Amino acid sequence: MTNAFSAVDEAAIETSSSAVNWGPIVAGAFAAATLTLVLMLVGSGLGLTMMSPWGGASLTTFAVSTAVWLVIVQWLSSALGGYVAGRLRTKWVNVHTDEVYFRDTAHGFLAWALATLLVATVLGSAISGIVGTGAQATTGLLSGAAAGAASQASSAQSPSANDLAGYFVDALFRPADNAAAATPPAGTPQNNADAAGQATRILAISAANGEMSANDKAYLARLVASRTGLPQADAQKRVDEVLASVEDAKNKAKAAADKARKASATTALVGALSLVIGAFIAAVAGVLGGRQRDEDEARFSRSS
């Protein structure tokens, strides 16, 4: 009988309403998301979230400044959202202090989570576009330097793959001073367009294979000699110099891509860490806002 009455008493004092007040949570989330967007625009205006196309700060410096600004934005917006969620919730009566503390923590955390989803939804397409453009530009640069691919690099300031491949081919066929008297040997193309086309294909295949075969290198040297008027030895030297330039451009492009990858990874890790800390800040701010709300109400009740 005692257990039955105890169960009835517990059911009688248990409230039927949820402990989660979604109104303050949504309000805090919108406040945090709005502040995030405002601060992102401020950072963009101050040059903290974009690089000048004409040079200036290095990629590492840009990544560090961007990461620091994102951390500041995350912390400030999380603090505001959590505090608003805690301050606007209704007072819980007949609830233990520890339970009030937990609920305020949960409200601040939920406000942060909802704000994060809102910002990710709003900025998701923009971030994807920026990342896609950067990846496309890097791919075009690598293709142009290494394989002479025909795709255009997406950046307006970066030369296209055709320009890079064409530059190296033009370097092969720059005429010598006595080129006018040169007579092409038998078996070589009879016009410059055919010669340039063959040289381009040889360079592309060699780049794809990682090296140029001895036969291709010898034929390319004869092709250069026939079109430039250079002696065979000088033509061979020119081929070697151009191949070295191609390899150097490829290595520089790889190094730049690797540096960009490392900077992107570092920024992502810092961003993830800032989100975790932002969640903690929002939870603490929710507790502070709820406590401030209860204290102000109690003070007003005593004064009245």
Describe the main β-sheet briefly: none
Low-confidence stretches: 51-57, 137-159, 177-183
Total beta-strand segments: 0
In terms of structural class, how would the helical and strand content be classed?
mainly alpha
Distance between the termini: 46 Å
Succession of helices and strands:
HHHHHHHH
How confident is the prediction overall: mean pLDDT? 74
Helical fraction: over 70%
Could you tell me the radius of gyration in angstroms?
Answer: 33 Å
Tally the helices: 8
Structural shape? rod-shaped
Range of strand content: under 5%
Overview of the structural elements:
This protein has 304 residues and is mostly helical. 77% of the residues lie in helices and 0% in strands. It contains eight helices and no strands. α4 runs antiparallel to α8 and α6 (192-209) packs antiparallel against α7. The longest helix is centred in the C-terminal third of the chain and has 72 residues, at 232-303. The radius of gyration is 33 Å and the shape is rod-shaped.
